[in-house]
Design goal:
Aminopeptidase, binds zinc ion, 10 helices, alpha/beta, 16 strands, about 425 residues, 2 domains, 4-stranded antiparallel β-sheet, Alpha-Beta Plaits
Length: about 425
């Protein structure tokens, strides 16, 4: 076994560098939407990683959603080859952050360090994780320049809006070809003692019910689309929600409430357009001829997508045959299949083993209720050996006063460097 003492000493020495790097990343406001400053953060990472011997490539995801001359979707992939052939370990982090929102007591782009916590939008989700992976890679390379294989670090756009201008684009271009990359770690904030194996699927659709416009004083002369939608929602309550609640998954989804199928009704609108807040007029009297909802159905590894779709269309078709004048249209908006890496897969087992060593307790295997970029690495890249592991408290993501704990980041850095040593140093 290689003596890891010099490696562990080196990461201790890099604590201040880790803090400064995290602060620098937070201070580049990469808000998405619209996709601000992607080029700036890629240039920053380019300078940083080039100075540490990485070969870098900046890739713009042309013609993906949101890409324009004003808001180009820039990504960076950096690679450092070792002295000999071996596996490639790839760390993928998204560089975008969600809107700031209200309720902050700290500067959201200040990156201030207070009592061991660095504050800012994206501190936890996931610039702290990106910084941790960079420090881990640099410490490992400086200590063992003759390592086997390669280390890649990518900073990608648009995860918060689906990842099409980021990881999906890179996967289509072959950056996650299993012949080139063997292990992927996504340092999303799943907590320092957990290995996240994957996520549930999602299916988003708009349903519209139709009616016939008439004077509101004589609704019998028209047909009310909102009442038809009421019948749909009633069927969801009596049939769909109870059926979904019975379906449990073997996926270790956290929190517990997400270990079953779920569905959110994102929006509902029927009839007259909503007016601006400063409009002072009264409504006209009409029977609505259209009502729309958007549904957000999250499904399990055990549920085929066709079944998820058929269950909803079955309810709608049932109403069509049983309810007078009922008619509908369903438009699928998007879907994402579940992704689930085996807990015995090399990257999952390696990280879990190192968590046990560093924290002295078994790692918890979890799955995420929502999706993240693993879906593209799995479905487009066809690379299964991928997990999420990174510092930060999941519940702080997207909240006011988001922060990352420096001690948590240091634990993750240690787990990451030990994992690199396990995968990229010769076993003698
Ligand atoms: Zn994230």
């Amino acid at each position: 076994m290689t003596d890891l003492a010099p490696l562990l000493a080196r990461i201790t020495d890099k604590r201040d560098d880790l803090i400064a790097l995290t602060q620098d990343l937070i201070r580049i406001p990469t808000l998405n939407p619209p996709g601000d400053n992607y080029r700036d953060i890629c240039d920053y990472l380019d300078r940083r990683l080039s100075a540490h011997g990485f070969t870098t490539e900046l890739i713009r995801a042309h013609d993906t959603p949101g890409d324009s001359e004003k808001y180009p979707r820039w990504n960076i992939v950096a690679r450092r080859d070792g002295a000999q052939k071996g596996d490639c370990v790839h760390f993928n982090s998204h560089t975008d952050v969600v809107e700031v929102g209200n309720g902050w007591t700290q500067d959201p782009f200040g990156g201030d360090l207070i009592d061991g916590k660095i504050y800012g939008r994206g501190a936890c989700d996931m610039k702290g994780g990106l910084a941790a992976s960079i420090i881990a890679a640099e410490a490992f390379i400086e200590t063992y320049p003759d390592f086997h294989g390669a280390i890649e670090i990518s900073g990608t756009a648009d995860e918060e809006s689906g990842g099409y201008g980021g990881v999906a684009y890179l996967a289509e271009k072959g950056f996650f070809d299993p012949a080139k990359v063997q292990h992927v770690i996504i340092p999303e904030p799943l907590n320092k003692d957990r290995v996240c194996l994957g996520h549930r699927g999602g299916w988003w659709a708009e349903i519209e019910t139709f009616g016939e416009i008439a004077h509101g004083s004589m609704p019998f002369l028209g047909d009310c689309a909102v009442r038809h939608m009421g019948a749909v929602l009633n069927k969801f309550e009596t049939d769909l929600f109870p059926a979904m609640a019975l379906r449990r998954t073997d996926m270790p989804v956290v929190p517990e409430g997400a270990r079953q199928s779920t569905m959110n009704i994102n929006s509902i609108h029927g009839g007259q357009k909503e007016q601006a807040d400063d409009f002072t007029g009264l409504p006209a009297h009409c029977v609505p001829d259209s009502c729309r909802i958007v549904i957000d159905r999250r499904f399990l590894d055990e549920e085929p997508l066709d079944m998820v779709r058929d269950e909803v269309t079955g309810i709608l078709d049932g109403l069509k045959s049983s309810r007078a004048k009922f008619d509908y249209a369903l438009t699928e908006l998007n879907h994402v299949l579940p992704s689930m890496t085996d807990r015995n897969a090399p990257i999952a087992a390696t990280i879990a083993g190192q968590i046990q060593k560093v924290l002295g307790k078994p790692a918890q295997f979890v799955a995420s209720p929502g999706t993240y970029d693993q879906k593209h690495i799995d479905r487009i890249g066809k690379l299964k050996n991928c997990v999420a592991y990174g510092p930060g408290i999941l519940e702080l993501a997207h909240k006011p006063d988001e922060y990352i704990g420096v001690d948590d980041m240091m634990v993750s850095v240690e787990v990451m460097v030990r994992s690199l040593a396990a995968l990229l140093l010769p076993k003698d």
